[in-house]
Amino acid sequence: METNLKVLALNCTLKPSPGESSTDVIIEELLEQFRGHGVAGETVRVVDYDVKPGVEADMGHGDQWPLIAEKIKASDVLIFATPTWVGHMSSVAQRVLERLDSALSETDEQGRPVMFGKVAIVAVVGNEDGAHAIIADAFQGLNDIGFTIPAQGATYWNHEAMNPKDYKDLDQTPEAVAATNKTSASNAVHLAQQLRASLYPAP
């Protein structure tokens, strides 16, 4: 099945390329699920870009956020993926949400926020607790900005407490994570198709 939908994954790891990233592993698993629905995908490792602090669309002085923002606008589904650090999303992920805030002031020709037609799902990995809180914070921020969250639109993996192990070092994807990846991707594609066919009414 081929679609003309596009998915963009933002990898909010703290590790610049070509460093190995557990977040990249779960992203690739999700993108494989999207490919199964005929949806093409791309990953952006945000830390490889010079994303300035701030809440404007372009902070100037070589700010590369506008390049990422254009990719988001050209996509139908956003995968917001972050590692867990001291129980929270990474500082890179937090900066992404802060920079996305500028999208609230951008509207389409009917006055709807530009992200109203887009779906977002969240992926979290870590060797410490925090995934549920990170997902809750990310969902709230993404929804405020205008993204729509599908049913079971998050997937995560945390290792047991006080026994560090990275997701990228697992021999295989845990069955529960694989099942959740499949559901999240499938529901995201379904919702994106529905929004494309019938977008929210203008205010």
Overview of this structure, please?
This protein is of the alpha/beta class. The protein has one domain: 3-Layer(aba) Sandwich (Rossmann fold), CATH 3.40.50.360. The chain contains 5 helices and 6 strands. The protein has helices spanning 22-36, 65-73, 91-100, 131-145, 175-197, and strands at residues 6-11, 40-45, 77-85, 88-89, 119-126, 154-158. Strands 1, 2, 3, 4, 5 and 6 form a 6-stranded mixed β-sheet that branches. Helix 1 (22-36) packs across helix 5. The protein is globular and about 50 Å long. This is NAD(P)H-dependent oxidoreductase. It holds the Pfam family FMN_red. Residues 6-154 form the NADPH-dependent FMN reductase-like domain.
Note the main attributes of this structure.
single chain, 203 residues, alpha/beta, 5 helices, NAD(P)H-dependent oxidoreductase, Flavoprotein-like_sf, FMN_Rdtase-like_dom
CATH topology: Rossmann fold
Quickly give the CATH architecture.
3-Layer(aba) Sandwich
Rg for CA atoms: 16 Å
Strand element count? 6
- In the CATH hierarchy, what is the class? Alpha Beta
Shape: globular
Biggest β-sheet: count, sense, barrel?
6 strands, mixed
What percent of the residues sit in helical stretches (DSSP H or I)?
25-40%
Strand content: 15-25%
CATH superfamily: Flavodoxin domain
The string of secondary-structure elements, in order, is EHEHEEHEHEH
- Structural class of the secondary elements? alpha/beta
Task: Quickly count the domains.
Answer: 1
Distance between the first and last residues' Cα: 35 Å
Query: Can you count the helices?
Result: 5
Given as residue ranges, the uncertain stretches (5+ residues, pLDDT < 50) are none
- Mean pLDDT across the residues is 96
